[in-house]
Records
---
Amino acid sequence: MKIGAEKEKLGKKIEPYLFLMPSLLVFGIFLFYPFAKTIYLSLFKTNKMGQAKIFVGLGNYIELFTSKSFYNSIGVTVVFVAIVVVLSMALGLLGAVLCNRSFPGIRIFSTAYALPMAIASASAALIFKIMLHQSVGIINKLLHLEINWISDPKYALVCVAVLTAWLNSGINFLYFSAGLANIDETLYERASVDGANGIQKFFRLTLPGLGPILFYTLVVDVIQAFQSFGQVKILTQGGPGESTNLIVYSIYRDAFFNYRFGTAAAESIILFLIIMCLTLVMFKIEKKGVKY
């Protein structure tokens, strides 16, 4: 009896881990193993097949931190992320506020604002490339200009950032719409009675009410912007020069064009650390200074 009770007790302790095993297995194969392999490769020089051959320790990292091209890619990425995050959040918030009212055709407008979420970045980039074409592009036709938007270092990064911001604005619109639906309408009614105008309501009621959603959206947008790749690959391929050579595209180019898999792995680890540190800083700031 005692042995049976002990087995039953042991079984109850093991049971939760058995339920977790499938998910842990999937995480292990598709997340933990690739991450560990990336760290391993970052310490080696590799052959063209990506196999580790010569152990160099931190040599790949030292090489990156003495490379002007790497610092340029970090600088370009920071500017790109700033533009994308600000624009995508502004577009999503504007759309959500405009659609937070009942009027005929509201569903059509809501669908239109959320549509970027359903469009593949590759197809959007191809359409955007045609729109920005110097000769036949609709942008130059409407503005009566002859600018080669994606071949000019002054405009290329902004063009890619605008496209990415528009693609991200769809999901932001849904987040903000859900947040606005949870704000009590009686607050706006009381504010109207007290004589508050639309701008005062927005800054004193809407934004504070969206506090948790704004923070969540900020974190998600920053992470997504750092990982943007398809738009750059189709529109500019890192050019002209290195004006749109985001760190993700630099990783792709080092790995699959230059066959420097060790260097690409080191860049990946650095990108991971940048994103992780930024996320931790944002959470720390949010805990210290934001009150909802």
---
Amino acid sequence: MDLYNTTSAATAKLFTEKYSTSFQLASRLFDKSIRSDIYNVYGLVRIADEIVDTYNGKDAKVLLDDLEKEVYAAIGRGYSVNPIVHAFQLTANSAGITQELIKPFFGSMRTDLGSVRLSQKQYQDYIYGSAEVVGLMCLKVFVAGNKKQYEDLRPGAQRLGAAYQKVNFLRDFAHDSQVLKRAYFPQVNFKTFDEASKAKIIKDIEADFAAAEPYVKKLPTNARAAVATSYRYYSELLKALQSASAKDIKTQRIRLPNGKKLAIFVQTGTSQKLLRRT
């Protein structure tokens, strides 16, 4: 079983790194004791995303439903023949990740199975299920069973998850609108998106970042450097989106230059490691 456990975890790590170079860089700053658990969480997130974003079969809902059922069954039996699910259940069982967080995630994923146009309430529910609960899953790993610490840090994890997701929505606005036929932002669609719409969205994201910042500094040392680095990266990405015109956002995916991205990871990660040692 040890070989299967380590091979499953290695699969989750490989799967996650192949999908995000930014995450790959930031993840190296997690303490080795929790690094594998974070990959295990994101591995599951990625395969669910694959079902709703790239699979074109008419049975996508069946696949998503089956995946959710397999996750619950795997947590119960401590085993899955799906290596990604098996890796996730290892982390879920050790960190105490339950259906309370998993069910909303799959609920939001089901929203993406068709064309998406969300009301304000649906938008808030989607953000919670697609992003905030993922932050809370990671927080479960960070605090290693410390319930008080989890509750104290919970608001920050939710606001930071929400900020990251909203930045992703704005960055991917063109692709989501034109290719996937999804309109996540309430009362905003491709035709009506303009500078005023952009400014309103950015103001909302800035509020999430401001609310989350004090909590980042209070995170356990096993995660603080990695989260601080991702915070800086997404903050810089938001600035790039703010500098871009509404027309640019409607026609391209705004990115940070690779050199600047690497500098963020090196500078922020190094400073956080030095603070941790003092």
